[in-house]
């Protein structure tokens, strides 16, 4: 797998653009990438700074589709203008032509492609990046070769593939050096007025990327997470072109000169140095986002996971002990926390999302200030692939944009903090809330949070209407009293220990875990979440009988909703033990812990009028 | 290269313009013939009057129905459709000739043609490069409008070197100077100045439209397309409108298309004998070696019309629709399905289950909501008062009953349905608000949820959590179906013809059966009376339903997709509802009589007061009954309201009003209840209730029932033993206390038990009439309104009409 530099075989496409070479190309890359370890050879935009990557080479990018632009038309094939060297060229996988175009040529083919605006997966935990980084074979020190050597590399390829005029090489050389000049690694955004890269979460870093898709774009959905393999295009000519059209469009009599306004242009054609283009060749959908597991669907690698499955019970016990320590000795709360972390919306029935398990952990020690909730978050962040802590201060509630909104001026979707990938842990810190006034935006934000919790959906604001996008976010609410937000499960913390120095206590608990231990936990959580689950006919019967009996004894004790949540708890309990079918034991255990939990919250009651 | 494969271009070596487009010329000729000859069935020339109108200076566009062209000359219609962009200038030319023949028109005036009623419609997502140049109709929601600009159609330039004028330089989408000064001795190619006074302009506006929600695949971002409007089409679309645009796709910036367009314009000017000039101003893009490979599509529209809702458009109702027109818009299969549904014997039930496949039970609510979707007929009385046809429903219920689910389902299903929560929306958010626009500082009216749901359903969750004053604000919307605003100098009445589906939590969190509906919800009486149907969801306990519920929930949790069963798909139901809504049923005399009869019955029952009804039966309920009957009739696609329809409406109404059965017994609040019912004479109060701790004086209905059965059983037994013997009240009390001996430990408990029992007895005697008190003063008490005497020890007998359950 040495050939990581991709060159467009436009020579092959001579005379016929539909010779099927496109299919062969994608198939070739798919095959090669399937090979063992092959994908680790491809440098990743996530880990390697852009200026270390070779333009027009194959790179990968682990990302979330943040926005979808309107389809774009390009010259799929065109003739060069110079009659003496008239050749048919291919425009696929490219952004700019490198030579004059014969616009009247009958050979010109107009093709369509779709652009997605992609950002790194929001809230990726730092540990993950480290794992990815360690696993990648291509690190800057080895991949980055002096540009001269690189040129010769390219020349070689050009010989058999493409006969670009020498000028192109020069242009590229200029581009390279220019990029290095303008982007001293520290100041990516220093040169231009800050372009909002539209990351869903505040304070995020990383490249955003325009991914150009050539086939099957309807299968992509907003907020999909995937790893894309494609050709990196950072030609500075792109920015130059957009600058030009900017100036020329100032003529007043030319309203149609440029269909896009300056604002749109800025968004849709940002400088390539800031937002590189990636011409997609192969996509790998991410079923989960844990680098410790093979990225493909789990069935494929069942054999290798069989051993892990066997260990699940013991890992569970260790993890439970760890959580108990974090939760100041509260075993029940620890158990619920564990269940919460493996929850996942596995299906939707009409409007009801199934499998969600929002946990409200109340009774968080407030005397210690934000330290406790903060450190608890740090501990959780260490275990899950992506997480975000939303401090529910009044200011945040009133000012943050949680719900994505369509900006019709720039014609893009302004992201919001709730535009998160599936299985992201959203940690709401309600201990930070104080008394005060919520303005309309704040009320909307609270409503949006409530919608995510109750229906696992976010209503994106399209100004004239709202549009519902399903979400799959694990919401954990840490609060002092019962949270003002709804939740599936409310556990009041009952600390068994009161360490004099909370920070030191938690700090030591955190550091006590070796990295291999943490990896075990991480693996466990992802595994448990993706297991299959079913309920046999007998158990179904038993559950139904049980429900009716309980209703008979005391109709108030259990409602339909209680059964609903009980089944949810039972499912998670089974999964956490590595079992893929409900057993009567697990059912009674679920009932038991639910009873314990409810007995805790009873004295508090549901006084504030929020539906449970 | 995209545009003109069929064009017979006679291109000179200079890239010149000697184009002869025979096809287009023929088209022009035929089109002119069409304009001059096409007659309506009554023999009038259809387009003559319109053409004469074009004399007016502000007019320049002739709107032609595409259907007419198809009738007149099908090949012509096909050519126009397929080669629209190519023949368009020629068609405009034909209009010009036509107008000139019938009026005195300035020579320089430009004319345009617009096509209406183009039969097929494309989705925005279906616009591909292959469709460039042909006539299309697309629909979408206007999301952004740009100001109207004058666009240069044809420029007159002053050469800055030799001062000579260069006239009639055709402009196409791009400011285009002459290539070279026409003065042979002047070689100026760059320095020109536009002479605005001698140039011709056309109104030009850019708008952006966006895919409608209905067309959007789930999980995708709606696509948008820029639309270029010209001439009379400008300013016909406002942001937020759903409109249809007829025109063609063009590519921007597509130099090749621009070049050939310029060539064609040139051709047309040549044909009309205008002062010809080599207006090959389109010099192409700067001869850059490097250029962007991509371009975008735009839509050049000549005609704009509000979207006529088809099934793709999903609009539930439309005034100017008839059943026939709706039928015509359906495909054959769709119509067959609808027809099949009308024949369904079990339609009522099947529609209900198809609407709410995952909600168990609650059939009455499902029926109510179904009827709400069909709606009654809006009427205007002779005095001009309009009576709404929309049905409003309120669901009151314990938490964790599936109230919100109902709402969510409706929002999911019904087009133009808005979901909002009373907690989160103030009156402004719900009705309409006047806000100052940030950019222009003008006041604009911002639509609230009710307005947005105009012609749809507005689902309001947590209705009770809404401020009272907000409830008042929507009062008008509910009855008048309008919203008035008088704020910041703006006075407006806006339509809000919407059905309201509200969900409310009872005041205490749980529905208190011992209280009336009114006491259970935080809602003002006027608002309450605006709801046609009230449903109360209580957590009932019964083995059969429990099993069903358990089965359903467990099914839900297994990966068992079959658990969602639908007889009809949502699309089918929607289509059916749209079709059925076109019926405007009238009431038959038989049904009228039946209505009167039923209404009387309701009134009577109300005044006897033996049943606990939720509110007084007034004329509002009569209106509701009619509305529901009409909805019922519509459901069966019938034009006449039959007694059977009224029967079901009556049943539903009855269920809704008198649903407050088996309430909890709360002895403290009986006084309040009296006020509500108003029908009962004042009943004595012995004052113990207020002094005793409140908690003791409540008991569940089940317990009350138990005690009452115990008493009745005991009394029956006593009567059997001794037929002549009479049971005194005190004896009964003592007997009871003795029975309860094992449970009583302290004296306090004894007293409280006694009090409670006396209360039960009191209730049995005075309220439920299970036991009859035989006292001397019994007949007088109602006359003077005094409290019945309780200090005496009356003889009690079981009401002979009472049967033990």
UniProtKB/TrEMBL annotation, chain A:
Keyword Nucleus on entry: yes
Location of the protein in the cell: Nucleus
GO CC annotation, single: nucleus
Main localization, broad class: nucleus
Bias kind Polar residues: ranges: 163-175
Region (Disordered) residue spans: 144-199
Lineage: superkingdom: Eukaryota
One record GO biological process: DNA-templated DNA replication
MF term (GO), any: chromatin binding
Keyword terms: Nucleus
Family named by the database record: Belongs to the MCMBP family.
Protein name per its UniProtKB record: Mini-chromosome maintenance complex-binding protein
TrEMBL record, chain B:
Keyword Metal-binding: no
Location(s) in or outside the cell: Nucleus
Residues annotated as domain MCM C-terminal AAA(+) ATPase: 347-553
Enzyme Commission numbers on file: 3.6.4.12
Catalytic activity, reaction form: ATP + H2O = ADP + phosphate + H(+)
Gene Ontology, cellular component aspect: MCM complex; nucleus
Keyword Chloroplast: no
Alphabetical list of InterPro entries matching this protein: MCM, MCM6, Mcm6_C, MCM_CS, MCM_dom, MCM_lid, MCM_N, MCM_OB
GO biological process: DNA replication initiation; double-strand break repair via break-induced replication; mitotic DNA replication
Keywords of this entry: ATP-binding, Cell cycle, DNA replication, DNA-binding, Helicase, Hydrolase, Nucleotide-binding, Nucleus
The family this protein is said to belong to: Belongs to the MCM family.
Listed PANTHER family: DNA REPLICATION LICENSING FACTOR MCM FAMILY MEMBER, DNA REPLICATION LICENSING FACTOR MCM6
SUBUNIT field: Component of the MCM2-7 complex.
Protein name: DNA replication licensing factor MCM6
Organism for this UniProt entry: Gadus morhua (Atlantic cod)
